[in-house]
Structure formats: structure tokens, C-alpha cells
Specification:
By secondary structure, the chain is α+β, with helices and mostly antiparallel strands. 30% of the residues lie in helices and 26% in strands. Helix 4 crosses helix 6. The two termini are 37 Å apart. The protein binds one RNA strand of 79 nucleotides through strand 1, strand 2, helix 2, strand 11 and strand 15.
RNA sequence: GGGCCCGUAGUGUAGCCUGGAUAAACACGUCGCCCUGUCACGGCGAAGAGCGCCGGUUCAAAUCCGGUCGGGCCCGCCA
């Protein structure tokens, strides 16, 4: 007999079926017994009022093979249920469950630490698992969108000889008799591949940051959705593309992940335009509207939150691009603006958090060399990167989206670790 | 790297400030018995922690103090 997935049971009314799954609930009312069975596709109630071999051995989290008849039943949770006729036990749990993963999360009231310590088990919880179902959707759509726009998917090395900026936030790895590092960004490689004639490339890959911090929005290993495109006029072309992507993404999520969004109580906005506020104007807005005058060249998390609030009030969107960041807080490859204090670098903030960084890059060899020196680096270290710039590099730019951050903000999660299957942070190396 | 907070049965909490009376209470889970339409099933009963760890103060410490380990949040920095 062939296995039927639980979501397809309604096609088998009054027929004998075989299902596989986990037992998630047991309710015994004397001789009448109910079992909630779950497989990857859904849940179904099984019922039995006879003495059947193995039936009383079942515990929660047992793995079973169940034969039975599908029947309509108004009293069943989903309108149908399965009359259990035969039970085969494939595996029984060997220990008490640390928590009742099959219950409603709000009843469990578990600490994130617990969920992460028992990650595979906590992922069995539908609501938690759904974070990764929707994340897979986000990545799928990213790929689909990139392909539609004629980008080539590439995979760049994760073991590299030097970082894209300094070297302070890199993980060292032993590479035979040399020191190598884990890539903190595919930056150099994606630019080189633009110059390699591909023009448009994108990558979905882990990047590594050895930053010694412990916050709800940082991971030491995170999934970066990168893209780099040649023959642009300026950074606005890159932002235009991202807006198009986000519209496409939200439309898809609203359609395919309705249930998940509802479960998380999310109403995804209809994106029209995303305002682009130059850095210095942003600072002025903060001063005028919120009476916040924070010194410094960068935006603090509080300022980022306020700018999003401003954007929501004024433009009706949770998104806002902050453009023309001061040059000296952006990496050396960022194209300076007409006013050289500023750059053609931008961030995209969403619901108060930075989810993207991008810019137009410097494509002129001499200018790039100048910039490397201006930032105090040794051009010798970047020889492999600079090479292609000697042979006709087109004007180009690109960006990187933090996949976990985007997931986190879409679902309004509190901690970015919730959006990572097996997060690597300052203290967590297992599971 | 800086600041603040937390650590009690399998899980989530109460107790701690204002030390003591039966060496710890409640809920969920677990185990046993009962229950033929449950769906956070219900009823009755039971087991399960000596309060992260080490040390100190005290006649007396889960409660006060010090250290240590583990965890959380914020900031710097970043996606």
C-alpha cells in the first residue's frame, strides 16, 4: 500500500489509506481513543474504539505507520478523520520530552535558549517551523527574481586570504601552512565577476563576521543575498532593482504564505515607492521631528528606528533608504558622491532595522587605488582584486540583503536567532 | 569592549527585598486507575527539585555577601 500524505486525505474519503507520521496528541476517553498524527504536510485526527495491537503503547512523539479508513465526521477538528485499523510502531521516544513542542507556543512560554538547545525538536512546532518555510520562500523568490532579471548565480570562495575592509572582524582558519580567513562578504569576487563579463551576478551564501557582540540582531554566520550589476548610471539603479524585488517578494508571500503571515499576525504592506533620504537630511529630520541630535557619522539603532517611524508617518511605508552615507564610514570601494564628504552608499531600513547595504562602486582603477590609500590600506594586499580593474571595468554597483534580518522583520521576530536554523553567535557553537 | 538583568522538579513560574516554624508552592508534562466524541478533554491518586557551582556571614541561607560558570537585553559595530 502506498503512503498518502495527510494533506491529501480528503481525496480518499471512505477509502483505506496508509499514513506515516508522529503522534502529537493522545486523548483517551475510556475505550474511545483519539490520536493526533502529524506528517510534513499536516495533522489529522485518528480515532479508534476497539482494542488494537500496539495502540496502547503509543506515546506522544512516537513514530508510526497507520492503516485506516478516511471518513467524514463533523465532530472531527478538520471535518475528516481516520478510523484506525492497524498500527505499526516504527520508533518510540526514549526520553521524556523537554517541552511539549506540539502545543501552542504562547502556552509553552519557552526561552529562546531552550528552543535553540533543542533546535530540531523546537522546529517540529508548526509556528517555529514556519519561520523557515517562509524563509525558504524568500530565498526561492530572490533566486527567481534574479534569474528573471538576467542575473547569473555564482558561488564565490568562503575561504579567503583577506577581508573586504580591515581584518579585525575575520575568523582565522588554518589553511595548510598559511593563515586564511572565512569570507565576511563576497564583495571582491562579485565585482570581479561583473568585470569577467557576466555583468550581473548574484549569490546566496553564508558569510562570517567575528564581531564580538551579543545582540538580538547579530549573528556570526548569516545568509547574505548578494547581487552586483554592471552598466548602471548610479546607485539609484541598484535601489530601483531592490524595490522591484521587494514588491515581487511581498506579492508572492501574501499569496503563498497567507497562513503563516496570519499566524504571525502580519499584514504585509503594499509597496509603492520607498523614500530615499540622504544621510545629512536624515540627521536633520531627526533633529527637527524628534529633537534628537546624535553626534557621529553613523546612525544609531535608535535613529534607525526613528527614521522608519518618520517614513511610516510621512510616506506610509515601513521601508526607507538612507542614501549618501559619509564616505569615511563606508568601505573603500564605495563610489564617492559629487560632494566627496559623502558617498554613493545606501542602507535600506525596514521596521527600524538595517536589512540591506549597497552602493555604486568605484570602477576606475586609479581612483580605486587612491581610495585604498586614502583609507590607509596597502594596495599590495588587494592585487588579485584590482587586476580586472585594469582591463575595462564597467560602472557597477550592488547590494547585500541579510536573509535572517529580512525574515525577522517580515515576521516581527524579537531575536534574529529565531530566524536562523542553527545560529552561530558569540557563545553558541552547537547544535 | 562597556552598561544593566536573570539562574528554583522535564518545562514555565512563585518564594528571595523584610534569613527560621512540615528542608520549598502552583501550572503544564510524566506515571497509575476511571471515563465512547475528545480537540488546551475531564475526574481521582502518585512520583519528581533541596533552590547553577564554590566559598563566606549567621545558632540558622533558596533568601544576605564574594567569586565563578551559564543565560538574556541594551550600547559600540554591522546585514
Amino acid at each position: 500500500m502506498k503512503r498518502v500524505l495527510i494533506r491529501d486525505l480528503n481525496k480518499y474519503l471512505n477509502k483505506q489509506v496508509l499514513i506515516y507520521g508522529w503522534v502529537e496528541g493522545i486523548r483517551k476517553l475510556g475505550k474511545l481513543k483519539f490520536f493526533i498524527i502529524r506528517d510534513r504536510s499536516g495533522q489529522i485526527q485518528g480515532v479508534c474504539d476497539k482494542e488494537i495491537e500496539n495502540l496502547d503503547k503509543l506515546e506522544k512523539a512516537s513514530v508510526v505507520k497507520i492503516f485506516g479508513k478516511v471518513k467524514e465526521e463533523t465532530q472531527a477538528p478538520k471535518g475528516i478523520e481516520i478510523l484506525i485499523e492497524k498500527v505499526e510502531i516504527l520508533n518510540l521516544p526514549k526520553a521524556t520530552l523537554p517541552f511539549e513542542y506540539y502545543r501552542d507556543l504562547s502556552l509553552l512560554n519557552l526561552k529562546l535558549d531552550m528552543l535553540l538547545d533543542y533546535r530540531p525538536l523546537s522546529l517540529r512546532n508548526k509556528k517555529i517551523g514556519n519561520i523557515f518555510r517562509i524563509q525558504a520562500g524568500i530565498i526561492k523568490i530572490y533566486r527567481e527574481f534574479m534569474e528573471k532579471n538576467d542575473f547569473l548565480e555564482v558561488h564565490t570562495p568562503k575561504i579567503v586570504s583577506s577581508g573586504t575592509e580591515g581584518g579585525s572582524q575575520l575568523f582565522k582558519v588554518e589553511y595548510f601552512d598559511r593563515v586564511a580567513y572565512l569570507a565576511q562578504s563576497p564583495q571582491f569576487y562579485k565585482q570581479m565577476l561583473v568585470g569577467a563579463g557576466f555583468e550581473r551576478v548574484y549569490e546566496v551564501g553564508f558569510v562570517y563576521r567575528a564581531e564580538d557582540h551579543e545582540t538580538s540582531r547579530h549573528l556570526n554566520e548569516y545568509l547574505s543575498l548578494d547581487l552586483e550589476m554592471g552598466f548602471i548610471e548610479d546607485e539609484n539603479d541598484v535601489m530601483d532593482l531592490e524595490v522591484k524585488f521587494l514588491k515581487y517578494l511581498f506579492r508572492y508571500l501574501r499569496k503563498k504564505y497567507q497562513e503563516v503571515l496570519k499566524e504571525y499576525n502580519i499584514e504585509l504592506e503594499e509597496i509603492r515607492e520607498i523614500p530615499r533620504i540622504p544621510f545629512y537630511e536624515g540627521k536633520e529630520i531627526l533633529k527637527k521631528e524628534y529633537n534628537k541630535e546624535i553626534l557621529g557619522d553613523d546612525l544609531t539603532p535608535e535613529e534607525e528606528r526613528l527614521l522608519c517611524e518618520y517614513s511610516l508617518n510621512k510616506y506610509g511605508t515601513n521601508f526607507v533608504f538612507v542614501t549618501k552615507f559619509p564616505r569615511n564610514i563606508r568601505p573603500f570601494y564605495t563610489m564617492p558622491d559629487n560632494n566627496p564628504t559623502y558617498s554613493r552608499g545606501f542602507d535600506l531600513l525596514y521596521k527600524g532595522m538595517e536589512v540591506t547595504t549597497g552602493s555604486q562602486r568605484i570602477h576606475d582603477y586609479d581612483m580605486l587605488l587612491e581610495s585604498i590609500k586614502y583609507f590607509g590600506y596597502n594596495p599590495e594586499n588587494f592585487k588579485f582584486y584590482l587586476e580586472i580593474f585594469k582591463y575595462g571595468m564597467p560602472p557597477h554597483g550592488g547590494l547585500a540583503i541579510g536573509a535572517e534580518r529580512l525574515t525577522c522583520q517580515i515576521l516581527n521576530l524579537k531575536n534574529i536567532r529565531e530566524a536562523s536554523l542553527f545560529p552561530r553567535d558569540r557563545y553558541r557553537l552547537v547544535p
